[in-house]
Specification:
Elements lengths: L7 E4 L9 H16 L3 E6 L11 H11 L9 E2 L4 H11 L3 E4 L3 H12 L24 E4 L8 E6 L3 E6 H4 L3 E4 L7 H12 L3 E5 L6 H11 L5 E5 L25 H15 L9 H15 L3
Helix pairs in contact: 1-8, 1-9, 6-7
Cofactor: Zn(2+)
EC number: 6.1.1.-
Keywords: Aminoacyl-tRNA synthetase, ATP-binding, Ligase, Metal-binding, Nucleotide-binding, Protein biosynthesis, Zinc
């Protein structure tokens, strides 16, 4: 196992509800990777979307991590305390940003007419790139993606391998501040990771599709590009990703401390490909960290 002295990782949950098993898998993977590299593991609460935040969720998240023996380094940070950083990034982006007056329905309709059927992912056609149409008012702010040549972003994921995405054809100009005034996830997460010096991002594969946009933002903002590792996501019996929307419950709901190991930590580890034996939570981490290092071939 080789050290990477400058390693700084993070777990960045949104306080929209308690941590479910899928959240625990992501937290565990990021924690194990940081500890296997003898690095730092930071906790950041991504509460920038105020309408989705649930009262008491942050406290529940913190308590769940502590019950599982995961201790972060330094102070907890929160996106709601970092608005000035997002404003600064917006100013830095300058003419690459423009106001957009299009609704999701209008974007979907434009794709239906262009392609003859409804596209699964909404690709922005650039309607407002050269100015708002008469009678339209600004709803959101978008970031221009190069069109000539196409903006093709490639990266090597430590779990999924080499990946690439043509942002021009597959995404289009994307939102960095939403119509409701909240900062978009793409901008906030890139600015936060840059400000905290994050070197390695370990998270769920549901965010793989977002990574090229974040890499592009890092490039135009002049920020270092972290390494990425996206672990598989946990799904329910219907094949849907576990989430609040699909009825996922807290992984530790009703579990006394003595049952966390057998009914939460060990199942999460097995999902990540770690077949472990442990008699206590402390022993679990003692065997899990070197097992993770062997799994990802540190």
């Amino acid at each position: 196992m080789t050290d990477r002295p400058s390693y700084i990782g993070r777990f960045a949950p949104s306080p929209t509800g308690p941590l479910h098993l899928g959240s625990l898998v992501a937290a565990m993977a990021s924690y194990l990777d940081a500890r296997a590299h003898h690095g730092q593991w930071l906790l950041r609460i991504e509460d920038v979307d105020g309408d989705r935040n649930v009262e008491g969720a942050e406290q529940h998240i913190i308590a769940s991590l502590q019950r599982c023996g995961m201790q972060w380094d330094g102070e907890i940070t929160r996106q709601t305390e970092r608005t000035a950083l997002y404003e600064q990034a917006l100013r830095q982006l300058g003419d690459l940003v423009y106001p957009c007056g299009c609704s999701r329905r209008e974007i979907a309709d434009s794709q239906t007419s262009l392609r003859g059927k409804q596209a699964q992912n909404l690709i922005y056609p650039g309607t407002c790139r050269n100015g708002l149409a008469a009678g339209k008012s600004a709803r959101a702010l978008r970031l221009k993606v190069p069109t000539e040549p196409h903006c093709i972003v490639a990266f090597d994921d430590r779990w999924a391998g080499h990946l690439s995405q043509d942002l021009t054809d597959e995404v289009g100009d994307f939102i960095i501040r939403r119509a409701d005034g909240y900062w978009a996830y793409q901008l906030a997460v890139v600015v936060d990771d840059g400000a905290q010096g994050i070197t390695d991002i370990v998270r769920g594969a549901d965010l793989l599709d977002s990574t090229p946009r974040q890499l592009y933002l890092q490039q135009v903002l002049g920020l270092p590009q972290p390494r990425y590792l996206h672990v598989p996501v946990v799904c329910n019996a219907q094949g849907d990703k576990l989430s609040k929307q699909t009825g996922a419950t807290a992984f530790d709901q009703g579990l006394p401390a003595e049952q966390l190991l057998q009914h939460a930590l060990l199942p999460a580890a097995r999902f990540l490909g770690l077949d472990l034996r442990a008699g206590s939570i402390d022993e679990f981490w003692q065997v899990a960290i070197p097992a993770w290092a062997a799994l990802i071939r540190l």
